[in-house]
Write a structure and sequence with these properties.
Length: about 270
């Protein structure tokens, strides 16, 4: 392995192995897109008009998604390097078991064991136990008052197991949508089990109250990303984020992954009708 550059200037490059050489190619090819993302972020921060900022924010996230798509395609075309699993191990929250298996199958079988590959293998194994039509793993957690609530006690209802956190802005925004759907379909048999991955109880409780969450099934282990229930359902820090959800039918079987906004609305229409 050859190292070149000046340490103090932060421009050291490593070469001499397949993965190092591939990394240099990745940096060169992704540089223009990263520059666009940085410019979009600066423009968004500088804009004071809320309506214009909303448009600029949308553009920023589209560019971020473009970079994610680029990395995934790059990983597939360079699937014989340890770089490949590193590039795609994040952002897998929308993948079900089938999707995880397909992702795993894209790697060259000669890629040596490494942290990122093992993480993908682990999540694929977990998702095999949370596949469509499979009864979701049962669990029991405490609400803010210390009362234990068990997932299976909600059997007979369609349940959205919703992983969120008080500090997560997308979660708080999605809460508004979930409340609206809960109020519309609760009488027909829809409920929510909110699993907070907060560590601070006061902030968790304050967020529940501020967002006016009407369902009583508010639970947490208060250990953050180490939440054992989150891990049971396929959440792996660095691979998936919050909000993250699993929709269960009246028998407790998985019938939807990470449905948000109109996707969740349309799924409930499919189940309950208008």
């Amino acid at each position: 392995i050859n190292l070149t550059g000046e340490y103090k200037q932060g421009n050291i490059k490593a070469s001499g192995t397949l993965s190092n050489d591939t990394w240099i190619i990745l940096e060169e090819e992704s540089a223009p897109l990263k520059e666009k993302i940085d410019d979009a972020a600066k423009t968004c921060r500088a804009e004071k008009d809320p309506d214009k900022q909303k448009v600029l924010t949308g553009n920023y996230f589209r560019l971020v998604q473009d970079l994610s798509n680029f990395k995934r395609e790059f990983a597939i075309s360079h699937n014989n390097t340890i770089l490949a699993p590193m590039l795609v191990s994040g952002g897998t929250q929308d993948l079900d078991y089938k999707g995880m298996k397909e992702l795993l199958a894209k790697f060259d079988t000669n890629v040596p064991e490494n942290f990122y590959l093992n993480r993908i293998i682990e999540r694929t194994d977990i998702m095999s136990r949370c596949d469509y039509g499979v009864v979701a793993p049962d669990f029991t957690l405490k609400d803010p008052y210390g009362k234990k609530i068990t997932l299976s006690s909600l059997r007979g209802q369609v349940v959205l197991v919703d992983f969120w956190a008080s500090w997560c802005k997308p979660c708080r925004a999605e809460n508004k949508n979930i409340v609206e759907l809960y109020n519309k379909y609760h009488s027909k048999g829809f409920t929510v089990m909110s699993v907070s991955i907060d560590e601070d109880k006061d902030k968790w409780v304050a967020a529940v109250e501020h967002d006016n969450l009407p369902w009583k099934n508010q639970v947490s282990s208060l250990v953050g990303w180490e939440c054992p229930v989150a891990k049971q359902f396929g959440m792996v820090h660095g691979m998936t984020g919050v909000p993250y959800s699993v929709l269960l039918d009246k028998e407790g079987k998985v019938c939807g992954y990470n449905l948000r906004g109109d996707e969740l609305k349309n799924k409930l229409i499919e189940i309950f009708g208008e």
